[in-house]
Design goal:
Blueprint lengths: L3 H5 L9 H9 L1 E6 L4 E3 L7 E7 L2 E6 L5 E7 L5 E2 L13 E4 L3 E7 H10 L1 H31 L7
Antiparallel strand pairs: 1-8, 2-7, 3-6, 3-8, 4-5, 4-7
Helix pairs in contact: 3-4
């Protein structure tokens, strides 16, 4: 069951108090997505933030040659996706596609941003954690790319 105590265990909201969590839940719905469903596409307006309840999601980036490049997988309960819904220019920078039957908590980003402005302490707590999550994932991606390139021996002239 998704309630304030469950939401407090989610990576983005662990520092919030129960009344703040209940406000977030009041602007949220649970969405069940079949295997293969695209939750959002790279380049689309980022209107919702998502918290994984159950299942798994691939996050991919379309390269210039239109190849999908997997950046990461969201598979742990409480992980967030759709982070650009809280960061300008408010466009999804990846495509999120379900790997299996997946349940997510779908949070209206506009309402969440409004509450973050009304309660600056809440806003600061969320943005601090958001930055941590974002940079952790960026570093994981960098390590993966570095490991990938180490698989190919460099050619010296």
């Amino acid at each position: 069951m998704v309630d304030a105590s469950w939401l407090k265990r989610a990576e983005l909201f662990e520092s919030l108090e129960e009344p703040q969590l209940n406000v977030i839940l009041s602007h949220s719905t649970i969405e069940s997505c079949p295997d293969g469903k695209v939750i959002f596409r790279q380049g689309d307006e980022a209107t919702h933030l998502y918290v994984l309840i159950d299942g798994g999601v691939d996050l991919t980036v379309k390269t210039q040659d239109q190849t999908d490049f997997m950046t990461s997988q969201i598979q742990k309960e409480g992980e967030v996706l759709g982070i650009p819904s809280l960061i300008e220019p408010f466009r999804y920078n990846v495509t999120a596609k379900c790997l299996m039957l997946t349940k997510v908590l779908r949070i209206e980003a506009g309402q969440l941003k409004k509450k973050m402005e009304e309660d600056p302490r809440m806003g600061m707590q969320i943005m601090k954690k958001l930055a941590f999550i974002y940079f952790t994932r960026l570093n994981e991606l960098r390590m993966g790319v570095s490991k990938f390139f180490k698989e190919f021996p460099s050619k010296k002239p």
